[in-house]
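#struct-help
A.M.: can someone run this one for me? Single chain, 128 residues.
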Amino acid sequence: MEINRPDVLAEVEAVFARYEVALTRNDVEVLDELFHPAPTTIRYGATENLYGIDEIRAFRLSRPSAGLQRVLSQTVITTYGTDFATASTLFHRDAAPGKVGRQMQTWVRMPQGWRVVAAHVSMIAEPA
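D.P.: on it. Structure tokens below:
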């Protein structure tokens, strides 16, 4: 299995960047598009556990759209073969001083393109 094949890595980096823009703009249509539309898709959030695309969609539609700007750091995207990837990043928000957010996503190439099949978001106190 080839890890981080350049063409595949570039594809996932691009879709990850598209996701980040949609997230900070609260573009629910794009966010919904980038999550695999299945009951097996899971998103663990900072305060919620969402099982299946219906729960994820409902959360996105009810979420406040203010204060979503953030700064990413230590982003690591790793591809495995041509159809599987992980994306991990830290993030900071002005609205959460002294805290660091952590985000991990599992991406799979589907017939429609790259889609998130599992995601986890959490925040912790900024390590010393």
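A.M.: thanks! Residues 77 and 87 are 4 Å apart (CA to CA).
D.P.: also worth noting: Strands lie at 42-44, 49-51, 71-80, 84-92, 99-110, 113-125.
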